[in-house]
Amino acid sequence: MITRVKICCISSDDEARMAIEFGASAIGLVGKMPGGPGPISDELIRSIAKTVPPPIATFLLTSETSVNRIIEHHHRTNTNTIQIVDSLYTGTYRQLKEALPGVKIVQVIHVIDEKSVDEALEISGMVDAILLDSGNPNLKIKELGGTGRVHNWKLSRKIREGSKCPVFLAGGLNPGNVRQAIEEVNPFAVDVCSGVRTDGKLDREKLGHFFAEVLRT
């Protein structure tokens, strides 16, 4: 099975086109966050998402933690997928799916320790996919992604083996380590932001190397 690629932190129509040209199956559009790279306005997210042809997935990264606020955020952006980067504190995934039929729900799990494994496996039966990242939502200023750090792939492997839904792997991936990550975790997809950028801009050369490594057998 070919590992799919999601390119995150897309900030313009040109970056979206470049990611798709190289073979991205999904792009990530970052809404307002407490910190980290890549946030753009809801208006720009909506505008970029409109230009992306099916079947490419457009992910809204939202830091909202209640079903009602997530629904409101989605209505402002109109992507075909929602990536919840923090825990869902108010409401249920079922309520979210009933309110937004046809929109895929992806829950981020920040892989910290064995508790993260238990959390991921429990949630995996309620969402369309889970995304394993290297943030820390327990800090005073929450880290909700884009850290550039690699987490413990052995824990990610345990999650992938027990998950009831597809698993995306994120966190510090780049052309130099993505092949090893795929071999150790065997995720449905890999997700990259800073690893294919230079001075914050999407880098064609790094993108080319990244995709070459993903496709290497």
Model description:
Helix content is 36%, strand content 19%. It has one domain (4-215): TIM Barrel, CATH 3.20.20.70. It has 217 residues and is α/β, with parallel strands linked by helices.
Set out the fold topology.
Layout (H helix, E strand, L loop, with lengths): L3 E4 L5 H10 L3 E5 L11 H10 L5 E6 L4 H11 L3 E4 L8 H7 L4 E7 L3 H10 L5 E5 L19 H10 L4 E3 L8 H8 L3 E4 L4 E2 L2 E2 L1 H12 L2
Parallel strand pairs: 1-2, 1-8, 2-3, 3-4, 4-5, 5-6, 6-7, 7-8
Antiparallel strand pairs: 9-10
Helix pairs in contact: 3-4, 5-6
H/E order of the elements? EHEHEHEHEHEHEHEEEH
Largest sheet entry:
8 strands, parallel, barrel
* CATH overall fold name: TIM Barrel
Distance between the termini: 11 Å
As residue ranges, the low-confidence spans are none
- Spatial ordering of strands, largest sheet: 1-2-3-4-5-6-7-8
Number of helices: 8
User: Any idea what the CATH superfamily is called?
Assistant: Aldolase class I
Estimate the mean pLDDT confidence: 93
From the structure above, extract its key features.
single chain; 217 residues; alpha/beta; TIM Barrel; eight-stranded parallel barrel; two-stranded antiparallel ribbon; 36% helix; globular
